[in-house]
Amino acid sequence: MTFPRLPDWLVYSAVVVAVLVAARGRQENADAPPPPPISAEEAALATGTLSETEAGEGEVRVPKSLSPSQTGTAFSIAQSGVWLTARHVVQDCRQVAVIVAAGRGVVAEVRLDPSADIAVLLTQGGTPPLPMATEVPAVVGALAFHPGFPQGSAGEVASRYLGQQTLHGRGRAARDQPVLGWAEVGRTEGLSGSLAGLSGAPTLDVAGQVVGVTLSETPRRGKIYSTTPATLEAALRLAGPAKAKQNPDSALDGAIGEPITVENYGRVADGLRRDLRVVRVACLRG
Hints:
Blueprint: H1 8-24, H2 40-46, H3 52-55, E1 59-61, E2 71-78, E3 82-85, H4 87-90, E4 95-101, E5 104-112, E6 119-122, E7 143-148, E8 155-167, E9 177-187, E10 202-204, E11 210-218, E12 223-226, H5 229-236, H6 265-274, E13 278-285
Antiparallel strand pairs: 1-5, 2-3, 2-13, 3-6, 4-5, 4-13, 5-6, 7-8, 8-9, 9-12, 10-11, 11-12
C-alpha cells in the first residue's frame, strides 16, 4: 500500500507551525543570563575619552535622559567607520550619534536606503567589522541571535528561522520588502515586554555571520523580522566602494572567534558590545 505524497507547502507549513509552537512554549529554555555588572576598570574607561582609533573626530556628549524611542542599535561592517542600522531608527533625525561610552557619542553621517528599512552610518574611525553572510539560512528552524539594546539597555534574543516573508509597509511612502521571519525562543533573563531599541541589531547565525538587520517584532505572535542578505548587499553600496571595502585575504579579521550557541550567546553579545562592534545609536536632534 502506498501513501500519497504530501504537497511541499503543507510540509513547510507544518514545520513552521511546529517551530512557532515550540518557541511560544519556551521549550528550549534558551534564555540568556543577565548582562554582568560593569567592572571598575570598564567604568573608568566609560567615563574617559576613547582613543582616536575607537572614537575618531566629532565626539559629542550624549544626555542620560534619552528615552528608548530615541535610540536603537547599530553594528560595525568596516573598521574605517561604517555601521548598519534600521532606517526607521534614524530617518527623521537631524543629528545621529553612535554611543561609544557613557555620556559620549560620535556624530554619524546618515545614508538611507530608498527601498528598504536599512541605513548606513559613517563615522570618522570605527571598530572591527562583523562578518557578513551571503545566503539565507539553509533550513527552517536554524538558530539565530540578536544582540543589542532592547528598551535602551544591553540585552539579546535567540530565535529560530521561519523562512522568507514579505513585510508590508505602512504610510504613503512605505514599500513592501522581503524579510526573514524568526520565532523568538529566548531572551536576556529579566527582559520582558517590548524589544523596542533592538531595531538595527545584527541577526547572527551560529557561525557569527550577519544574515540580516533586525527590524521589528510582533509580540503577540512571538515573531521577529530582519532584512535578507541580498538587502544587506544592496545597502553596502550606500557606503561607497572605498569606505566599506574589506580585504578578502583577511576574512577572519571580523570573525566572532567561536560558534554561537544557546549556552553562550549572552556572553558573546556582551563581548560584542564591550568591543563596540555592536553599539547603541541615538537621535540627539529630531
